[in-house]
Design brief:
The protein is α/β, with parallel strands linked by helices. The protein is built from nine helices and 17 strands.
């Protein structure tokens, strides 16, 4: 998966390759400011021997609420992250996406520790890797656990690119044959679903740079074209052209965008 470009922390550009260094510095500073959080930050981030171990520690701490040994779950997640280096690359791009698009997210550390949409997406990446390795049972179990703990219900077979933001995360449903390309922003209570009992390829294809507003429903094997916007509360049952805004029930085109407009980055909710 492609990596994102640079983000801004303070006045300093930060490349995707240095995100984890920034997180470790932020964690050390936070541990000094808030001693109560010191042991947690030490165990989950500062004492980690690799970026993969840091991410696995954070996800395990949140997911280990069922009757399974902490160390077994940590081993499962760490093993996948070690075998699939592209997951960490996508994670870094997602961290930058959240940090730059969400005004409520002031640090990478905040995204890593506190945003359940980010947690759900990273755990989905691990579940998807297990699915592609021919381990559907453990992949489905992990996806169900994500839904119970974090809220989003994402089928482990769904294909999701990098530089993705699941804002808030609550109520998001993404079906088995859905495809989400890079640099997409999806808000709460969005459904990428089927239209009934049809089988095969039956879920939406979300192209590069799209923003999907809160509560939107996109149903069936239809395409939402690159750099388009689906307005909040819309129901989309027909293909959406590139570079436009659709709104309504059923959704219709209400605006054509300039070629350089990227709705997923601007996050402008206006129609």
């Amino acid at each position: 998966m492609p990596q994102s470009g640079s983000a801004i922390v303070g006045n300093t550009p930060v490349s995707a390759e240095s995100v984890w260094d920034v997180i470790r510095r932020e964690a050390a500073e936070l541990a000094r400011r808030e001693p109560t959080l010191g042991p947690l930050l030490q165990a989950q981030i500062l004492a980690s021997r690799s970026n993969a171990e840091s991410l696995a520690n954070v996800l395990t701490a949140r997911l280990c609420v069922v009757r399974i040994e902490h160390d077994e779950l940590l081993s499962l997640l760490s093993g996948v992250l070690t075998r699939h280096a592209a997951i960490l690359q996508a994670t870094e791009a997602d961290l930058i996406a959240v940090r730059t698009r969400d005004p409520a997210c002031t640090t990478y550390l905040h995204a890593l520790l506190n945003l359940k949409g980010f947690h759900a997406l990273q755990t989905h990446r691990i579940a998807h890797a297990l699915w592609t390795e021919g381990r559907p049972e453990i992949a489905s179990w992990l996806s169900n656990l994500v839904s119970l703990v974090f809220g989003p219900d994402i089928h482990p077979a769904a294909r999701i690119g990098s530089s993705i933001m699941l804002d808030h995360g609550s109520g998001i449903v993404i079906g088995e044959t859905a495809v989400i390309e890079d640099e997409v922003s999806i808000l709460q209570n969005v459904t990428l679903g089927g239209t009934g009992k049809e089988s095969g390829d039956r879920h939406p294809k979300i192209r590069h740079g799209v923003m999907i507003g809160a509560g939107a429903k996109i149903l069936g094997n239809i395409e939402v074209g690159a750099f388009s916007k689906v307005a909040a509360g819309s129901v989309v049952v027909k293909a959406v052209p590139p570079h436009c805004t659709v709104a309504g029930v059923p959704a219709v085109v209400v605006r054509i965008h300039p070629a350089d407009e990227i709705p997923a980055e601007t996050m402008d909710q206006n129609i």
